[in-house]
Structures are given as C-alpha cells and as structure tokens.
Amino acid sequence: SQTIHQWPATLVQPVGSPLSLECTVEGTSNPNLYWYRQAAGRGLQLLFYSVGIGQISSEVPQNLSASRPQDRQFILSSKKLLLSDSGFYLCAWNEPGNTIYFGEGSWLTVV
Amino acid sequence: AQTVTQSQPEMSVQEAETVTLSCTYDTSESNYYLFWYKQPPSRQMILVIRQEAYKQQNATENRFSVNFQKAAKSFSLKISDSQLGDTAMYFCAFRRGSTLGRLYFGRGTQLTVWP
Q1: Which of A11, A27, A36, A104 could be cross-linked to A2 through a Cys-Cys bond (beta carbons 3.0 to 4.6 Å apart)?
Q2: A9/B contact by beta carbon, under 8 A
Q3: What are B59-87's pLDDT values in tens digits?
Q4: Residues with Cβ < 8 Å from B97, sequence gap 6 or more?
Q5: Across the interface, do A46 and B102 touch by the CB < 8 Å criterion?
Q6: Could you give the angle at the alpha carbon of A82 between the alpha carbons of A76 and A86, nearest 5°?
C-alpha cells in the first residue's frame, strides 16, 4: 500500500534562517506531488506541484521554492525565512487522475 | 476559475444526531470530482468521501453520505449517528478530471460534536 511521510513535524526557526521540509511517498511510481500551506484559521493554499522529476510549477510568487530530486521525493525550501512563512505545511500526492492523499503535516513557526 | 464555498464556518451537533454540512461550487468543467476532507485537531487531512460528477448516485461511506445536486452545483455532507470523534474541521474540495487535478478547497466548517 502507498504511504506518505513528511518531516520534520514541528520546526521553530528564526527570521532569515533557511528551511528544508521533506516529503517522500512509498508504494507508487511517478506520482503527482504537491505542497500546500494552511495559515492559522484559513483554508489550504497550493504552493507547488510536480508531475515528474525536476518538474516544478509554482502557484504563487513567494519566498519559498520546491525541488523534486527523485521520483518520490519532494522538498520545500527557503534561503531566508520571513515571519509570514509561519504556518502548517502539507505535502500531498496522487496517482495521475486519482484521489489526493495528504501527509501528516509540518508546523513551522518563524520567530 | 473554480471556486468552492462553505457558508457555515461553525456547526455543532449532539452525539448520535444527524448533521448536514453545506458546500457549493462554481465551474464550467463537465468532468470533475468532489471531495470532503476531515481535519481533526492533529491537523492531518483525511479523506472522508469522494463523488464523481458523472455518477448520478450519491456516494456513501458508512455514516457519511453526500447529496450531490449537479445542476445546482451543490455538494452537502450528511453525518449520521454523530460521534465525538467526528469533531473536526471539514473541507469541501473540487478537482478537475484531468490527470494533474489540483484541489480547490473551501474555507472549511468547524464541526463540534457534544455529548
């Protein structure tokens, strides 16, 4: 069966520091991969999606970037965090055309 | 553009009772999917139920069922025999029928089940 893992679960970082959140999917090949952000009390915002290795599409201009170095690995990064980057980050995946499933999420607090 | 609207920010229901959460959407697509996701206090997003737009029959998963009105672009979730563990934020979501199929979410309804 397919599983998705996301880490770290919780992160407290100072303003201006770098960020790396990692997500891996097991039990499938060539999945679509997504990064969503959920700010406090708000809905989910799609940040990035990827349909294959090295293929990244950005939904909104921002301080973040994403990379997909391997088929089932999706990384969310920042060189210098801003206070506004705080939030709950969710990685998600689906086999093309199928239901989207989410990881456990990562809490990021920028101080 | 696709939009999903959940007009009820908060709802509450007594244990064992039935509650219905509302969702409307706007799209010009003919092939699409609709979902209800549940986000408990742990914050993980959990799929509750899925409906294919081409199917006239309403989807059902145990105590959860939907009322899909395609012409009205309405997709409500009914929870029967509510349990304390149903307390969560519920999100309605839309996805095109394409292979990429990104999700468009409503703003959510916070459901509280009380004893």
Answers
A1: A27
A2: no
A3: 999 999 999 999 999 999 999 999 999 99
A4: A97, B29, B31, B32, B33, B53
A5: yes
A6: 65
